[in-house]
Design a protein that fits this description.
Strands 6-7-8-3-9-10 form a 6-stranded mixed beta sheet, with helices on both faces. The protein has a 4-stranded antiparallel beta sheet with strand order 2-1-4-5, covered by helices on one side. A hairpin with a 2-residue loop joins strand 1 (about 10-20) and strand 2 (about 20-35). It contains 8 helices and 10 strands. Helix 3 crosses helix 4. About 40% of the residues lie in helices and about 20% in strands. The protein has helices at about 50-55, 80-90, 105-115, 120-130, 150-160, 180-195, 205-210, 230-265, and strands at about 10-20, 20-35, 35-40, 65-70, 70, 90, 165-170, 200-205, 215-220, 220-225.
Length: about 270
Amino acid sequence: MVAPPDNDVLWARSLHYSHSGSPGLIGVSVGVRRGEVLAVTGPRGSGKTTLLRCLAGQLVPEQGEVWFDGVPVHTMGPSARERLRRDRFGWIGPEPGLLPELKVWENAALPLLIAGAPHRAAKHAACEWLDRLDIGAFARKRPSALTRAESQRVALARALVGEPSVIFADDPTAPLHRAEQANLLRTLTTAARSHEITVLLATHDERTAEVADRRVALLDGRPATAPGSEAEADADATATAAAAAAAETNADARLALTTDAEGQGACSLSV
């Protein structure tokens, strides 16, 4: 077991995970600093969600290590990982996942209420975040009264309400229009930087990834530049095709030179 670098709040080495025998992650390593916004990019099916779930302790990697704040997450039992997710992590996905029977503020306060926080304090914290997200006017309504964009803002308030150390944002803007995407991302990144919250943002959208401080790319469960990845194979194929084309061009040029020399005793090549 190798200890993580001191400046990485979240660190993983050589993660492997499979879904019913199908590879999900193959040798993925990543480190994230406190307060950093890291974009995990790649097409659908590249392993982004699997990586986030392994880092968040929702999944236990088959091989490799996951460390949070110097503590090995991959060796924790289910109860310890559940406490870690409840107390230190926030999560927002492409679906708001609001409970229809609860009021908006109760949905936002849910992590605090589950943790046993006093009812009044939980409501106050939830309403503060709802106000910051311009959704405070709906605090006493049910989720059915909200638009999709408003529901996603409530989901973000729920992720932020416990002031987590890390927020895992799994394609949170996917169901939103461009203007709504920009608003949600601006709120997320502003909150993260003002509260020193680390954000892992999984996305296949280039504009969404631009808000991050840094990015890592996945392809077919591997780092995009890893040996054997489709990206490398495509690059090799492109290089091979280019070399073949160059060879063919050179052969044509040699043939032209020979023909001219035989017919005229001289040659000239125009470029």
